[in-house]
């Protein structure tokens, strides 16, 4: 199967258009107010009408039911991404409540961080491997920090659920990241920005060209 790409943190009609034109397979909307990429359900409803065949993914960090309901009442989503400290039980409960597939992000720094994965490989529908930023790096967010981990840690590992690779990807390193990790899906945010929260249509196009050439 061809490599698939999710572009996360889209927040204006122009950058959604760039992602759709470039052939993005999934588009992420951030519903986490501390993030510079966070948008309201109203904005997501509006720009979510331009996404074509791309899967619309809503990114949440330890959401309560009230916030999930508020977002889903306002905006149409196809998948939920959980990027906080949600337990396997909470991830499964969110899947039942929303009726949507759930992707659980697991933050990796070393081999010991894979110990938690099996518990989610069933409670969630998808897994997402992101970097746990080394201390002193990153913006204090639980993701979207533009920090990579050692992709060799993923090589040869198998799970029941499909999975995505994220963390510090960009047009220059995505081929190497996929070659080493064996990822079939990649997810990017910072690597297609000119500043945190400001997506760059040219960088989106370049990233998607790199992905689609593999
Ligand atoms: O993008 C954000 O602002 C964000 C906030 C909170 C949790 C996760 C977030 N983004 C996700 O982080 C990874 C890695 O992003 P990057 O390419 O290293 O910037 C990615 O899965 C985003 O969906």
Provide structural commentary:
With 214 residues, the protein is α/β, with parallel strands linked by helices. It has a single domain, classed as Aldolase class I (TIM Barrel), CATH 3.20.20.70. Helices cover 29% and strands 21% of the residues. It has 7 helices and 10 strands. It has an 8-stranded parallel beta sheet. Strand 3, helix 3 and strand 4 form a beta-alpha-beta unit. The longest helix is centred in the last third of the chain and has 12 residues. It binds ligand LGQLAAA5. The site of the ligand O=C(O)c1ccccc1N[C@@H]1O[C@H](COP(=O)(O)O)[C@@H](O)[C@H]1O has 28 residues, from strand 2, strand 6 and strand 8. Pathway: Amino-acid biosynthesis; L-tryptophan biosynthesis; L-tryptophan from chorismate: step 3/5. Its EC number is 5.3.1.24.
Helix count, per DSSP? 7
The order of strands across the largest sheet is: 7-6-5-4-3-2-1-8
Number of domains: 1
Biggest sheet descriptor: 8 strands, parallel
- Tell me the overall shape: globular
CATH topology: TIM Barrel
- Structural class assignment: alpha/beta
Give me the CATH architecture, please. Alpha-Beta Barrel
* CA distance, first residue to last residue: 11 Å
Secondary structure: helix percent: 25-40%
CATH class assignment: Alpha Beta
Residue ranges: pLDDT <50 for 5 or more in a row? Answer: none
Give a count of the beta strands, DSSP E runs of length 2 or more.
10
Order of helices and strands: EHEHEHEHEHEEHEEEH
CATH homology superfamily: Aldolase class I
User: For the CA atoms, what is the radius of gyration?
Assistant: 16 Å
| Ions and ligands | the ligand O=C(O)c1ccccc1N[C@@H]1O[C@H](COP(=O)(O)O)[C@@H](O)[C@H]1O
- Binned strand content: 15-25%
In round numbers, the mean pLDDT is 95
